[in-house]
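Known limitations

Files may contain more than one protein. Parsers should not assume a single record per file. Below, a two-record file is shown to illustrate correct handling: read the sequence, read the C-alpha cell line, then continue until end of file.
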Amino acid sequence: MGEEDRRMDIDFREELRGIIREELRAVYKPPAKEGKALITSEETAALLGVKPQTLNLWRSRGFGPDYKKISDSAVRYSLEEVEKWIDAQSVRIQ
C-alpha cells in the first residue's frame, strides 16, 4: 500500500467516525434534565458496528468502552465515553 493510499484510508476512517457520531446523535436524544446521556448495550453495539454478544465478551475481558453497571442485569454506557473510546482506537499508519 502506497503513502497516498494510507492517507486516504486514514481520511476515510475519520470521515466514517464523524458520520457515525452524527447518525447516533440524530437517533438518540438524551433526556433534557440529565447531565450525561446513557445508552444501552444494544445501542452501544450498534454504534460500534458489533453484535451485543461481542460487547458482552469485551466487557468480560476488560476491553471496550467503560460502562456503568446499574443493576445485576442492567449495563449502560456514557455516550461521551463511547465516543472517547472510539477516538482512542485510531491507528497511525506511517
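...continuing to the second record:
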Amino acid sequence: MSIQQPCKRYAIRYRDSFGSTHEDNVYASDAMEAQHLAMEFNEELMQRPHSITAVLQTPKESLGNAGLSSVVIQKISAVASCRFEARNQALGS
C-alpha cells in the first residue's frame, strides 16, 4: 500500500540553444519528479537535459504571468502523475 504524497508546484527554468531563458511549471511530489515530467513533455529538455538551470518549488497561488504552455504542462503533469501512481500500485510498490 502506498502513501499518496501531496503535489507541489515547481518551476523548471532552462536556457534554449540561443541562450534565452524559459520557465515551465509542473505539479509533482518532489523536485526530481518535476524535472522528469518537464523533460517528458518538453522536447528541447529531453534532448538537452543539461540546459535546466533550476528546479524551484513555488507557491500554488502565484500563477502570475504564467503562459499557456505552463497551464498545459500542469494539466499534463497531473495526468502523468496519476498514471505513475496507478502503475506503482499495480506493480505493488
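Parsers that stop after the first record will miss the second one. For reference, the second record is described as follows. The CA atoms of residues 1 and 92 lie 7 Å apart.
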